[in-house]
From TrEMBL:
Superkingdom of the source species: Bacteria
Pfam families hit by this protein: Endonuclease_7
Bilayer-spanning residue ranges: none
Name of the molecule in the record: Recombination endonuclease VII
Coiled coil: none
Length: 142
């Protein structure tokens, strides 16, 4: 590996050659990596304090879900939310903010029966059973 040019150092964490202004006087880790480590530590602390997860358990759940929301299975650029039962506090899994807040929270209010009816509605819309399939031309996507 080539040595960084004058005025630059190699970060021991991300291994990028960065200007010396990104480092503390005798630091080996750039400021970007330090900030990321601080954010991760703050997130871990909040998850432990709020949901009772032990150190590393969020990461275990995240890996088990392949970094995806447990409902929509999409990856998100932000941390996934820890979903929990509001009645007993039991952790259920990790969800994207949309599924956690909009779908479960505001939409279904944590009621499984509402979600089952919503799935049934999407699988067999009552209007199609009564009227047949009706597609309005203006609503079709090109």
């Amino acid at each position: 590996m080539a040595e960084p040019r004058k005025g630059f150092r190699r970060c021991s964490r991300c291994e990028r050659n960065r200007s010396q202004r990104f480092f503390a006087p005798r630091g080996r880790v750039c400021s970007t990596c330090r900030k990321q480590a601080g954010r991760k530590a703050a997130h871990e602390s909040r998850v432990q304090r709020t949901y009772g997860l032990r150190p590393g358990e969020y990461d275990v759940l995240f890996a088990a879900q392949d970094g995806r929301c447990a409902i929509c299975r999409e990856r998100r650029s932000q941390n996934l939310s820890v979903d929990h039962d509001h009645k007993n506090g039991a952790v259920r899994g990790l969800l994207c903010r949309r599924c956690n807040n909009q779908l479960l929270g505001k939409g279904a209010r944590d009621r499984a029966d509402v979600l089952r009816r919503a799935a049934d509605y999407l699988d067999a819309p009552p209007a199609q059973a009564l009227l047949g399939l009706r597609i309005h031309i203006d609503n079709q996507q090109a």
